[in-house]
Write a structure and sequence with these properties.
five-stranded antiparallel beta sheet; single chain; about 50% helix; Beta-Lactamase; alpha+beta; globular; 6 helices; 5 strands
Length: about 170
Amino acid sequence: MVSVLNYGYLERIIWEPSEMAIGRNLNDKLRDALLFMQAETPGLMGAVLVSSSGLTIVSTLPNTIEADVVAAMTASLLALGDRTAQELWQGKSDQVMIKGEKGTFTLVEKVNSQVAIVILASVQAKLGLVLMNMLRTSLAVAKIIEEALQAYPSSLTQKPSPATIHRFRRRSVG
């Protein structure tokens, strides 16, 4: 397997079946990828992975920012970006950027059709470095998700059986 990342610790988490990966769950791996991006990108204030339906998957945003609100707005933002790009004959959008009047900016990049990464950067952040590290992290997150789907294909992609749904409903009601 050829690694597209030359990224130290992050590369070991994703590409090597080492002792670091044993016993680690999907959330931990995704959070580590976001934290590593933050550590390697001066001026990056936080990041969040969101689903296409607007739900928070993992967040490293500061406590003053509600990740669930950001996730919900991101789903709308991506839909608007796609619609705008299609109207301008550009295909689907891969990335949306918002620059605020205070100089901070928010970048949203699609990891795949179901997941997007959102970052919040300060005025001091170098846009080129942010974009490069965001792309690397996006590739890493896609790889982590792909490996999880390969390891547990039925539990992540199949609908639960009617018996499972019935047991869950009984447990949650009673």
